[in-house]
Amino acid sequence: MFAQIDKIITAIDNAVWGLPLICLIMATGIFLTARLGLVQIRHLGKAFKFMFKDEEDGSGEVTSFGALCTALSATIGTGNITGVATAIALGGPGALFWMVIAAFFGMATKYAEGLLAIKYRTIDEEGHVLGGPFYYIEKGMGPKWKWLGKIFAFFGVCVGLFGIGTFSQVNGISSAVQNFFDPNKSNCVNIPFLGEYSWAVVISSLILAACVAAILIGGLKRIATVSQIIVPFMAVIYLIFSVALILLNITEIPAAIVTVVKGAFNPSAVTGGVIGSFFLSMKKGVSRGIFSNEAGLGTGSIAHACADTSKPVKQGMFGIFEVFTDTILICTLTAMVILCSGVSVGYGADAGAELTISGFTATYGNWISVFTAIALCCFAFSTIIGWGLYGARCMEYLSSEKWVKPFMVVYALVAIVGATMDLGMLWSIAETFNGLMAIPNLIALFLLSGTVVKLVKDYFARHHK
């Protein structure tokens, strides 16, 4: 039965992530890059600079840095560790090439999302600042487009409950915990209708659900506070270990780069014929990249809308920084850890965090597995709480504020289910909902691109560029 369900889900995933959606995502990024005059290159320095500038007067709920960390908490997760590994295993090393290309153009996409979030945000009866694709669709494109915002919100709830938000993140955490505490599944319990699972998985899932509920019920400010602690600390530590590993294997870098570029256009040449489809390599790279940095999904704009700033263009800069840090930096380093370490890659088969962990242990020894397990758990946990906010905002737009807390309770409980799912099925579900949610947002970005360009020109004209 499960095998049949898996086939159906995989077929749907392949249909959603077909050539049309890949082209739409890439075309949006290229279109915005052209209209904004390579904004991601010309203003990358400003994106870093604004992180350390004093806050300007605004009407948000959290600081711009807090909004950035909240958005990063949702992007820096299992996609950076597990997602990169699965992309390389299923799409070959060339998947990294397409991941980086999509991220380059995705920086312009996320820049526009953050800008529009501030431009069209609103304040509810409770004084909460609300924004995101559903609001810039409704307010920017007009009430007649509200149905498109509703579609986005619906799939946003689905992604939160069954995709990026819980299933894949919890699965990553439970796998890391099991590999550390009970790698041989020596202590198991039989769960009715679900099967046999290690006690380590069951206990960690229950603790995780309780922690998620406690943070989400505290609202945006608690989420931002936790994110500002977890995200910068773990990201810096992960970068240090990754860069050090690559430097220790510095002689392997040229060959790894050649493998990535060659594999992008001729996958069979580097995978021994196991993966021969150029489109498969592109698909895995683009889809896993989107899963990680969320450029095109529009979800990051929900967090950016809450920033305490009155400058849409300034907040848009943080979107550039997010994609650069998440994908071009962290995802690339993860891929190079795998490729430079010399660890064997089982091309054509599902691979999870264990492939990335193997890359670290091959160079540092088994002791590093403790760090990678902790890093994976922290990254995944931060993504769960970030997506809790996104899902709650989507639910509020679909119905009303009174449904937010019940959603958060269900969201926390669903986390338990994610630990028991098959890895391949899990990624197919996540990719499918990602793709369906991206379509309304990409349509809005095309139609509102004129507004984005005007705001950018006016801002830099006033600030003398």
Provide key terms for this protein.
mainly alpha, single chain, two-stranded antiparallel sheet, about 475 residues, two-stranded antiparallel ribbon, 4 strands
Describe it:
The protein is 75% helix and 3% strand. With 465 residues, it is mainly α. The strands form two sheets. It has a two-stranded antiparallel ribbon. A two-stranded antiparallel sheet has the order 3-4. Strand 1 and strand 2 (129-130) form a beta hairpin. The radius of gyration is 21 Å and the shape is globular. The N and C termini lie far apart (61 Å). The mean pLDDT is 81.
Strand order of the largest sheet: 1-2
Order of helices and strands: HHHHHHHEEHHHEEHHHHHHHHHHHH
Please tell me how large the radius of gyration is. Answer: 21 Å
As residue ranges, the low-confidence spans are none
Largest sheet descriptor: 2 strands, antiparallel
Helix percentage: over 70%
Principal-axes geometry comes out as globular
Number of helices: 22
Q: Which structural category do the helix and sheet elements fall into?
A: mainly alpha
| Mean of all residue-level pLDDT scores | 81
What's the end-to-end separation, in Å?
61 Å
Got a strand count?
4
- Share of β-strand residues: under 5%
